[in-house]
Design brief:
The complex is a heterodimer of chains A (about 425) and B (about 375).
Chain A lengths: L7 H18 L5 H4 L6 H11 L3 H4 L23 H15 L1 H5 L5 H10 L2 H8 L10 E4 L15 E5 L2 E12 L1 H5 L5 E7 L9 E7 L5 E6 L10 E12 L16 H38 L15 H28 L5 H25 L1 H5 L5 H8 L9 H13 L8
Parallel strand pairs in A: 1-4
Antiparallel strand pairs in A: 2-3, 3-7, 4-5, 6-7
Helix pairs in contact in A: 1-5, 5-10, 5-11, 7-10, 10-11, 10-12, 10-14, 11-12, 12-14, 12-15
Chain B lengths: L7 H18 L3 H7 L4 H8 L21 H14 L1 H20 L2 H7 L12 E3 L15 E5 L2 E12 L6 E7 L9 E7 L5 E3 L13 E12 L12 H33 L1 E2 L2 E2 L4 H29 L5 H26 L1 H4 L5 H8 L1 H4 L7
Parallel strand pairs in B: 1-4
Antiparallel strand pairs in B: 2-3, 3-7, 4-5, 6-7, 8-9
Amino acid sequence: MIDFEISPRIKGTKNMVHMFAESAIRPIARQYDEQEHEKPWDLLKMMQKFMGGGIGGALGTEEKKKEEKPEGEPKEKKPRETNLAGAITVEEVFWGDAGIALSIPGPGLGGAAVQASGTPEQKEKFLARFAGEDPVWGAMAITEPEAGSDTANLKTTAALDGDEWVLNGEKIFVTSGKSALEDSKGFVVVWATIDRKAGRAGIKPFVVEHGAPGMEITKIEDKMGIRCSDTVSISFMDCRIPKENILGSAEVVDKTKTEGFKKVMATFDATRPLVAAMAIGVGQAALDFLKQTLKEEGVELRYGINPHRMTSLERDVMQMEADLKAARLLTWRALWMLDNGLRNDLQSSMAKAKAGLAVTRITQKAVELMGPLGYSRELLLEKWMRDSKINDIFEGTGQIQLLVTARRILGFTRDQLK
Amino acid sequence: MVSFELSDEQKMVQETVASFAADQIEPIMRESDEQNAVPEDIIAKGWELGLLGGCIPEEYEGFGEELSSLTGLIALEELAWGDLSVGLHLMAPSMLAISVLDQGTEEQKKQLLPVFCAEEYKAASSALVEPYFNFCASALKATAERDGEEYVLNGSKCLVPLAQEAENMLVFAASSPGMGFSGIDGFIVPAGAKGATIGEREKNMGINALATYPVTFKDCRVPLAARLGGDAGCDFLRLLSRSRLALSALAVGMSRRAMEYSRDYAIQRVAFGEPIASRQAIAFMIAEMAIEVDAARLLAWEAAWRCDKKMDFVKEAALAKNYAAEMAMMVCDRGVQVMGGHGYVRDNPVELWFRNARGFATFEGFVMV
């Protein structure tokens, strides 16, 4: 039965997180935009205490917990909404502030990779730390100066030398890299090739712990937005890590055929709608603010009249509202499918493509409609416009999402649609 | 709890109407457009699906339970996937029937609804749109003035489907001009009413197969009992919103067909040694078409769900309809673009969808769910 009402449990969480975002995150949003490279430690420590890495659940890691089923007995299937609940939490936190939300401690994408393709021992070893008292971050390093989405051309190498892997290369745009490696006892999952000739088949993920010899943070990026979140370059010069830190098998085979690769892809199906939810949170913040201001100024929005009688402002605001809602519904659909064990690869990329673009436009329009007030740093609108642009870029640009969506709609392989 | 799963009944409706659309409607789409007529046997066969009768409760001789807008949207999407004109022709009686069911007095329901539960198709219609460039449903120029025991209707209407054969027509006019939506009422005008003149069949850019007419009213008198909802009048904005739900679903169905057609063409059509779908310029257009079709559907579903849950849905329906109208034009425009010259010739259907699509910006008053 079609239903758009979130369950009371999620609604309770949503209200709580919203209140928290409004009272604890929003008030310091500007401060940590202006003081780039500083962290709101008090807030982050408090969040760590309350959640004990619980936000990790929101970032897709909890999802992979296997439900132990006794053999033979088909267990009564309870409807699950873990992923939907996570996305709704994410949306509210990002409504508070995207930069601070991204700097919240937790396993992050690196943790998600461990969760998706690690052995039970690896999970125990690498993930337990996130449940402690102190904030710990996990990070993921894929992009290099000359390759981002084009992962087959990664140049960072990993070579086995006795009981150790030796990593060499340079990674850039590592979100929370400094948090993971310098500010806490975290790790970064580094994607490197063990066989350049093998292309994508040779690319493997490695867990590199903080303090690993030969690893150095070489640059901390100054960014247009999400300034509270650190983005770093990491260089690996004969960086040695234990042999068992490789995630998945060290065999070079066509990865599309392996379980490990499928699991990694499944992780993307879970994270894409979450990135969409991040965008939607920022879009909602801008729309809420705009509508509130219009209301205070006595500008009425006449829903229901025919479009050619609307003012340009009414048309714009209604378009923004519809776009945001459409993005949210596409996102919810992708998450509902995930929660119900349905294949959602197409729907998750559709959601991210729509949300990234819609919210980029919504925040830009909101600044435009508020005129000089929108452009001023007195208000947060301009910040939301700077922040939201990242959603059309990270975790795959809008164009990459279209590429993935198109391949799936057309039934085309990578080779058929480049 | 959030769910995107159709009920068993909705799945059945979807399957039934989808196969009717594929087997019966689609093959005659082009011919109907060229001939400016929907073949009668298609309507007779379509009527057998019992889509309208299934919305009308037993007490009025129907076989439906509670009216579900959402189920209605699912059926309309599939009909429009087959052909918009045929779908509109088949469902035209619901413009009157569902308005009466939703807003009519008990007497009006008893008197007017049973005919729509019969085995034979009976045309009925509704007149809302007016022939002015700045037409707006909240400011109708047609008026209804009370004169003793009668209402006197004056004004011009256009885009009235099946006016010539309709036994009854629901005419919307301002009973309290200047009062916006709340000053508008519906009046049931029988065929041949004095003062009502049906003009020559309209020639529109699209929906050619559907017979639409201009109708003018000059001192057309109807009894007080002809006012929809009796003395209390009707909630016009609610009916308008129901119509917007329906139009959203029709736009989604037709656009989905256009997207699928362009997709299949782009996969088969070879240029520069490979399918044109292998080029990002084409593939990205198709991806966006698919995303926007789904986006418009979900907006409409959410609004219809609110309607079924008896929540306010005026704003949601308006947003969904305007979104769907823009989406349909964008998608059908690209449908032509993907095919290039082949899209422009009438051998292929995309030009038909392109012409139909712009109509959604204008269409109002198609209360079909």
